[in-house]
Amino acid sequence: MFAVERSTDDMFGDRSNLNNYVMAAFLDQVAEIMDPILVEEINLEEEITMFGVGVACSKHSPGDQMNISDAIFELYSIKDAIL
Fold first, then answer.
1. Rounded CA gap, 40 and 37, in Å?
2. Model confidence pLDDT, tens digit, residues 20-79
3. Would you give the DSSP letter of residue 62?
4. Contact (CB, 8 A) for 33 and 4
5. What is the DSSP track for 30-71?
6. What are phi and psi of 3, to 5 degrees?
7. Which among 1, 13, 32, 50 has the fewest CB atoms less than 10 Å away?
8. What letter would DSSP give residue 3?
9. Hey, how many other C-beta atoms are within 10 angstroms of the C-beta on 43?
10. Burial of 1 (C-beta count, 10 Å sphere; 0-12/13-18/19+)
11. What are the backbone dihedrals phi and psi of residue 34, each rounded to the nearest 5 degrees, phi first?
12. Amino acid 41: pLDDT
């Protein structure tokens, strides 16, 4: 994902994880959890799409995860929009 925190950070403890952290901040606070360097480079719609892909790919159950081909397509679309 593109968050500043790592999935191994102590802030998550036993009750939470990076996926839950991003989901909690997904729409309202996405810029606050995003790496500050990326915030300067892309717009809010691109940020939300990137985090959406990250959340969809990191669901706990593999059957609920986004198909990797779809994830790659979404991320390349963002890259093309940025460049």
1. 6
2. 766 666 666 766 777 777 777 778 788 778 878 888 888 878 888 899 999 999 999 988
3. G
4. yes
5. HHHHB-HHHHHHS-HHHHHHHHHHHHHHT-SSGGGSPPHHHH
6. -80, 155
7. 13
8. B
9. 11
10. buried
11. -80, 150
12. 78
